[in-house]
Amino acid sequence: MSSAGERSEYLCIGCPLGCRLEVEEDASGQVEVRGNSCKRGLEFARQEHADPRRMVATTVRVEGGRWARLPVRTREAVPKAQVLPLCRALHAITVEAPLAMGTVVLSNALGTGVDVVASRDMPSKD
Questions:
Q1: pTM score of the predicted model
Q2: Which residue ranges form the domains of the chain, and what is each CATH number?
Q3: 12, 55, 79, 82: least buried by Cβ within 10 Å?
């Protein structure tokens, strides 16, 4: 979380425009955003300044599957500080085939309330 009286700059990823955003927070905690061309930029800047979050996409090991690795992703963004610990936790997971796309591989990942799900079907070995 950012501290009061701080000025930060971000490159917006809310839409294809990629606006350069400037966020300033005064001593009273009021946040002012400049440089956004759309509402998504305003929301992105406020979220990034207060509580940066990221989606995570990686792979996990598979036993008995057609392929050795299963692509997985978070259903929602997780706190940025949890990205590396989550990747480490997923590295330690092994799932059993068959699995359908959308199957929860890790529920409530690291206590974030966010599930990690399979990004594709994983059939069993033929």
A1: 0.81
A2: 7-51 (no CATH), 57-118 (3.10.530.10)
A3: 55
